[in-house]
Design a protein that fits this description.
- The structure is a single chain.
- By secondary structure, this protein is mostly helical.
- A hairpin with an 8-residue loop joins strand 1 (107-109) and strand 2.
- It is 52% helix and 3% strand.
- It is found in: Cytoplasm.
- Belongs to the NCF2/NOXA1 family.
- GO terms for molecular function: superoxide-generating NADPH oxidase activator activity.
Amino acid sequence: MASLGDLLRDWHQGAQAVARGDWDCALRLFSSVSEPPARVSFNVGCVHLLAGDPEAALRAFDRAVTKDACLAVGFLQRGVANFQLERFQEALSDFQRTLAQLRDNTAIDYTQLGLRFKLQAWEVLFNVAAVQSQLGLWAEATCSLGDAISKGPEGVRNDLDIALGQVQKQVPLQPRQVPRGEVFRPHRRHMEHLEPVDFLGKAKVKGGGFSLLGPRRSCLCPQALDVRGEARPRAAAR
């Protein structure tokens, strides 16, 4: 079984490989993590999407949401993979599950969990409309975009109006997803434990202070701690 230090090192180096666009290296490092947490499986899925392999991405996102049924962003990305595979009913189900995880909140900020991304309700509604447009459900897509407009900030109103015009002309939409190159990274304070190096040049974990054990969930519990010792994502005010 891999040590805590090995897991953190491979996770960190995999994220660095994603940042420089080295998909093969990133996949090799993330895949080397034995019994990966949901966030590492999520990372694998994102890299497969970047590499143009939505089938492999779908399998990775399946693993992520199986390990963490509250990982809303995992359902979002699985919906994108299903959309790319033209499995539109499955994509619609995934985006609807993403909305359910938002629990009527306007957003979930994943920054504190190491992903520089804020999941916005209006973007999920946009994706619902994108699937509905692919299925030829134009009236439903128009309604979903109306909901997106009501929940979106003023700065995105113009883009949503353009999308609404496309749907009214029966032009299908493409879904939104996590920005290119963004993946979960281990928390900085955890990486501080890897700074000392022994005489063989291998990073060592200092002391205790944190654990990788515990329930693997990311539900919206502002007071709770995540499995890997990090605060859970907070929902925006309703």
